[in-house]
Amino acid sequence: MLVSLTLVVILFEIWYVSAFLAAYMRLRESRLLLLVGQGMMILLAFAYIAYASLGGQPINPIIALAPLVLSMVALGIWRAVAGSVPRFAQSYPRGFIDVLLFRRPASNLKRRVRTK
After folding, report:
1. Would 109 be classed as within a structural domain?
2. Count of other CB atoms within 10 angstroms of residue 11
3. Domain span at residue 12?
4. For the chain, how far is it from start to end, CA to CA, in angstroms?
5. pLDDT single digits (tens) 25-55
6. Strand, coil or helix: what is 66?
7. In a domain, 116, yes or no
8. Residue 13 lies in a domain
């Protein structure tokens, strides 16, 4: 049971990291790499848990928790600098949902409405 849940988290984190890496490649906003790093730390922690579980070894809590704490620090830094990333807010109006669905950044959000 633990291994199957761990594999689901690993698959989600691969999706998360690749989505934010694609967003970084499109916008070239270096602060998006914080979220890529956060995903990589979570991926590292759960990969270790899966490796230890499948190998029958005991899970060292320090090795498992250190990347998770680092990912929380990265998320805290992102919360502090998220307001200073206007291109992210303008390009992805729905935020993380747009990024996780691999949508292209919006180029012009002010659409002209024709009236009769």
Report:
1. no
2. 12
3. 2-100
4. 62
5. 988 888 888 989 999 999 999 999 999 988 8
6. helix
7. no
8. yes
